[in-house]
Amino acid sequence: MIGDLPVFWLFAVFAVAALAVVLSSIRATRLADIIADRTQIGEAMAGGLILGGATSLAGVVVSVNAALDGDASFAFSNAVGGIAAQTLFLAIADTIYKKVNLEHAAAEPTNLFQGVMLIVLLSMPLCAMAGPEIAYFGIHPISVVLFLTYLYGVGVSSSVSEQPMWEPVQTSDTREDEPEDDAEPEKSARGPIMSFIGLVAIMAVGGWVISQVGGSFIERFGLSSSLVGSLITAVVTSLPELVTTLVAVRRGALQLAVGGIIGGNTFDTLFVVFSDLAYRDGSLYHAIGTTDLYWLGTGILMTSILLAGLIARQRRGPGGIGVESVAMLAIYFAAAFFEVFG
C-alpha cells in the first residue's frame, strides 16, 4: 500500500503522480484547441466542457476516494479549495499577459454565463448546510438538484455559444476566437479525441495516487483534513489548470484559457455531488467543518470578482494587470494564511 511507504518514497510517488498529471495536461491543451477548431464548437466551449472536465478528473478521484474513506472534510475541501486555486491561476495568467488586462481581451458571452452558473452551483451546498440534516439512501436532495442544474447549464452554455443574444464591444485589444492557421478543420477530430482520452486516463490514475498520499499525510503528520484538501491535494490536482491556462495564453487562445478555468470550476462543483454519493455516513454537507465552509465562501467571492472583471473589462490596472486580479490574489493568499496559522 502507498500509505506504508517510507517518507522519502511517499513524497517521491506524490511528485511522480503530480508530474504525470501536469505533463498530460500540457498535451491535452494542444489537443483541446485542435478539437475545438475541427469540431467548430469554439474555444470557450472547448475550454469549459472538454479541457475543463478532463483536467478536473484527478481532483474528482481525490474527493471520491476521501469520501469512500469516510473523511468528509478532505473530500469537500479538496473540491472547493481547488475552485479557489484555479480562479487564482487566472490572476497569475493576467500578470504574464502584458498586452492588456486578460479579462478585457478574452471577452466571451459563454464565459460570463458559466461564471453565473458557477456562483449558483456553489450557493447550493451553502443552502444545504444551513438546512435540515436529511439524506435519502445516504444522498442529500441538493446533490440531485446540483447535478441537474449543472446539466441544464451545459445546455444553455451551448446555446449561448452558438446563438449569443448579445456580443461584447470589440476593441483593438479584444482577441477574437479564430481557428489556428495549422488547425486543418477539414481533417477528422477522431485522432485527437482518442489521444485526449488516453491522457485523461493518465490524469485519473495520477489523481488516485495523489488521494492515497494525501490521506497518508493526514494520518502520518497529524495535519487537518481541511488543510491537506484545500492547500495540498487541491493545489496539486489543479496544476493542470495552471499549466493549460499559461500555455493557452501563450498560444493566444485567451477564450480557451478563461473558459478552461471557469468551466473547470463549474465541473468541480460536481466533486461535491460525487463525494456525497460516495460518503455513506449520511449527508456530506452536515459532516464538514467551518473551515471547509470558509473555503466555499472564498470560492464564491473570488468567482464574483472574476465575473465583475469580465463584465467591466478594464484595460489596465495597477502594475499592468486588472484590479480584479489584484483582489483575487489578495483574497486567496489571505485565506491560505488563515488556514495555516489561524
Q: Could you list the spans in which at least 5 consecutive residues all have pLDDT below 50?
A: none
| Distance between the first and last residues' Cα | 33 Å
The helix count comes to 12
CATH architecture: Up-down Bundle
- Compute the gyration radius: what is it? 19 Å
CATH class: Mainly Alpha
Main sheet makeup = none
Question: Which labels suit this protein?
Answer:
342 residues; mainly alpha; A middle domain of Talin 1; globular; membrane; NaCa_Exmemb; transmembrane
Task: Give an account of the 3D structure.
- The protein is 75% helix and 0% strand.
- With 342 residues, the protein is mainly alpha-helical.
- The protein has a single domain (2-176, 185-341), classed as A middle domain of Talin 1 (Up-down Bundle), CATH 1.20.1420.
- Helix 2 (43-55) packs parallel to helix 10 and helix 9 (225-251) runs antiparallel to helix 10 (254-278).
- The two termini are 33 Å apart.
- The model has no long low-confidence stretch (mean pLDDT 83).
